[in-house]
Amino acid sequence: MVSKLSHLRDKIDEVDKKMVELLARRLSLVTQVGELKSLQGLPIYVPDREAAMLASCRKEAELKGVPPDLIEDILCRTMRESYTNGNDFGFKCLNTGLRSIVIVGGNGQLGRLFGKLFHLSGYDVKVLESEDWQHADKILPDAGMVVVTVPINCTDTIIRKLTTLPDDCILTDLTSIKSTPLQAMMESHNGPVVGLHPMFSSDITSLAKQVIVYCDGRNPEAYQWLLEQFRIWGASLHCISATEHDQGMTLIQALHHFTSFVYGVHLAEENPNLSQLTALSSPIYRLELAMVGRLFAQDAQLYADIVMSSPQNIDAIKLFHTRFGEAITLLDLQDKGGFISAFQHVEDWFGDFSQHFLKESQALLRQANDTVHLG
């Protein structure tokens, strides 16, 4: 029995080595594709191509008795690596005549990320920090585009200093709120203006499948090349008004971050054994705990600014507090019928999204569980 088991394990090891060889071959082919895309200015991420390839491979896997989800997991992880490697070849420059791009706050994490991508695309990138402001009059008059990426609490002040830009200079920002910065840019500059919100953190390795929200300001024809440049980097673009954007961010960012903050504060005050808590956690709770812990591994000032950036955020959080209290009343009254009724009301509101989110979360939980057991 021991000999037979050892023999089978040796066979598995052989297959694993062949899989590594095949992956190396695939990455080599992807490298060649990346070089061609870089020369031709093609996006590194093409949704239709990826969807068709995954569908074909799932069908092929089914015919061979291989779980389709398994092959999709392998391919998605492989493609993510491929998109990262795509950065190595740089990107086609879509506006070769553009004067320098000045990133105000360019030494920050997000500023460095965008600076790197612009540099990889062949643009001349300059950084302007607060300590360099005395040299601004030497840098800004020759700017073809100015990108403001500074803390939320000083974004408006910085933008209102930018009153002497060339008329054809594009003025934009990378802030997570849009109404106030966009208004400030429109009032401070007579040229092209667009508000941007990258919906990702600065620790990503590729913009493939990442979303950049943009809010039109003035002269959109002047910055269409910029939006196309983002697409070449792999990003998906979503156009929305500044007002609608900020209403959405109240729920997506401010309320979510605040509830995570309160839960973290509660855990710290209760002071459980965190190692034991994670050992007892199911994959879904561990993932939720990881997302709360992720918040507290980042900049406190940033999240304070996000949550407190507008009165609308505070009002929404207070309304949530009221509804939380109403839900507690159901517990105090032991009103199981009321609880179920409220549950079903929310279930109806989610509609078909419930099943979609269930499937999506199952994939996330499988990955989370793999990570746990890998240590």
Topology:
Elements lengths: L1 H39 L6 H17 L4 H19 L13 E5 L4 H12 L4 E4 L7 H4 L3 E6 L3 H8 L10 E4 L5 H10 L4 E6 L12 E8 L5 H10 L2 E4 L2 H29 L3 H7 L2 H13 L4 H8 L3 H22 L3 H15 L2 H22 L1
Parallel strand pairs: 1-2, 1-3, 3-4, 4-5, 6-7
Antiparallel strand pairs: 5-6
Helix pairs in contact: 1-3, 2-3, 9-11, 9-13, 11-15
In a nutshell, what does this entry contain?
Its main location: cytoplasm. The protein is an alpha/beta fold and 375 residues long.
Question: What would the keywords be for this entry?
Answer:
375 residues; Chorismate Mutase Domain, subunit A; Rossmann fold; 6-phosphogluconate dehydrogenase C-terminal fold; 7-stranded mixed beta sheet; globular
Structure report:
It catalyses: chorismate = prephenate; prephenate + NAD(+) = 3-(4-hydroxyphenyl)pyruvate + CO2 + NADH. Pfam families: CM_2, PDH_C, PDH_N. Helix 7 (179-188) links the parallel strand 4 (170-173) and strand 5 (193-198). The protein has a 7-stranded mixed β-sheet with strand order 2-1-3-4-5-6-7, sandwiched between helices. The mean pLDDT is 92. The protein has helices at residues 2-40, 47-63, 68-86, 109-120, 136-139, 152-159, 179-188, 224-233, 242-270, 274-280, 283-295, 300-307, 311-332, 336-350, 353-374; strands at residues 100-104, 125-128, 143-148, 170-173, 193-198, 211-218, 236-239. The chain is 63% helix and 10% strand. The protein is an alpha/beta fold. Helix 9 packs across helix 11. It has 3 domains: 1-87, Chorismate mutase (Chorismate Mutase Domain, subunit A), CATH 1.20.59; 100-240, Rossmann fold, CATH 3.40.50.720; 245-334, 6-phosphogluconate dehydrogenase C-terminal fold (Orthogonal Bundle), CATH 1.10.3660.
